[in-house]
Write a structure and sequence with these properties.
Structural class: mainly alpha
Helix content: 40-55%
Shape: elongated
Strand content: 5-15%
Oligomer: single chain
Distance between the termini: 102 Å
Largest sheet: 2 strands, antiparallel
Number of helices: 15
Order of helices and strands: HEHHEHEHHHEHHHHHHHEEH
Number of strands: 6
């Protein structure tokens, strides 16, 4: 074998070794996690920040860097929440990160009473900035396009499950939620609200009171009818949940004079009509209960003395006082004082 052939053969062997080495870097598993895990890449991250974030689950950091460089990830870092499978290859990992193929977050919103609580929930699970979200919820000019204001904005956070990309900012989050809220207000539902002489946000406010009064869906319509009848007759709503909300204590079991006399626009013992906004984020069933409330003559209701969570309804004050006494006697028997 002459020297020329030897040189060519050597080059081919070296090239084969390089290809084999590079191929191993590309296709060999390089993640150490034993189950699917998530990597969170913050908005504004460069490759060094990404590397710091992902390094703890890499078996071979240098191999990852090598493949990342060759696949242009170093200059194409995209923020997001990425699902990393066990023993994932560098090629698959880099391709996912470079292309921004994130795994959406399933955000479950339940009932919340205060803005700060729903903001905390959202900004704990998403990258959205809590201060930015609060500023949007207090911006009446911005909220006016959906006929909302700083008092009624919480109505947009209707309990449901929503999908978001983790790196969604505050504005994207709110506008997706408010879009879902506006879908409630079909032509039919707007017409029902108008027949009740209520705006959509007022329906949400009344629904929030109904929602706080009971978990029994079959009673919500009757409870809504009581408040609608009171509104029609110009009576104060005198809803216990509003006095608890105004007082700022949701553990109250027995509403006392100091609660009902507490001065607040949210306390319907203290003010006439509806409070300025919802006292919680009402469920769909409570909204439907208001919009489809049955026609009744009820003006009062009181919790049943068996503590079942259900209610006795009354059309006149004397009957209501008798029902109330039964419940108060039951609370006294159980030693419930506050």
């Amino acid at each position: 074998m002459n020297n020329k052939v030897k040189i060519i053969l050597g080059i081919l062997i070296l090239a084969a070794l390089i290809v084999a080495f590079l191929g191993r870097n590309f296709i060999s598993g390089n993640t150490s996690n034993e189950k699917n895990t998530f990597v969170y890449v913050k908005t504004g991250s460069d490759f060094n920040a990404l590397l710091t974030t992902i390094a703890p689950i890499l078996k071979n950091k240098s191999a990852f860097e090598n493949v990342a460089s060759k696949m242009n990830l170093t200059t194409n870092v995209k923020p997001g929440r990425y699902e990393v499978t066990p023993n994932m290859s560098n090629f698959s990992l880099v391709k996912m990160l470079r292309n921004g193929n994130q795994k959406p977050v399933r955000l479950v919103l339940n009932k919340y009473r205060m803005k700060k609580d729903v903001i905390h929930k959202i900004c704990t699970e998403l990258e959205a900035d809590s201060i930015a979200l609060l500023q949007l919820l207090n911006n009446n000019t911005y909220l006016a396009q959906w006929d909302l204001d700083s008092n009624t904005a919480i109505a947009a956070f209707t309990p449901n499950t929503y999908e978001f990309y983790w790196n969604s900012d505050a504005k994207k989050v709110f506008e997706k939620l408010v879009k879902a809220y506006t879908k409630i207000w079909t032509i039919d539902n707007k017409a029902k609200a108008q027949q009740l002489n209520l705006s959509p946000s007022q329906v949400m406010t009344l629904a929030s009171i109904v929602d706080e009064e009971t978990n029994a869906n079959d009673e919500k319509g009757k409870i809504a009818s009581v408040y609608l009848n009171r509104l029609k007759q110009g009576m104060k709503l005198q809803a216990d949940p509003t006095s608890k909300y105004a007082y700022g204590d949701f553990t109250i079991k027995r509403v006392l004079n100091k609660h009902i006399q507490f001065p607040s626009p949210y306390n319907t013992y203290y003010v006439q009509g509806l409070p300025p906004g919802p006292i919680c984020t009402p469920k769909q069933e409570s909204i439907a209960a208001v919009l489809n409330a049955p026609s009744t003559s009820y003006l009062y209701f009181c919790a049943k003395e068996d503590f079942s969570g259900r209610h006795n309804f009354a059309t006149n004050g004397a009957e209501h006082l008798a029902n109330a006494k039964k419940f108060q006697d039951a609370m006294n028997a159980r030693g419930i004082k506050h």
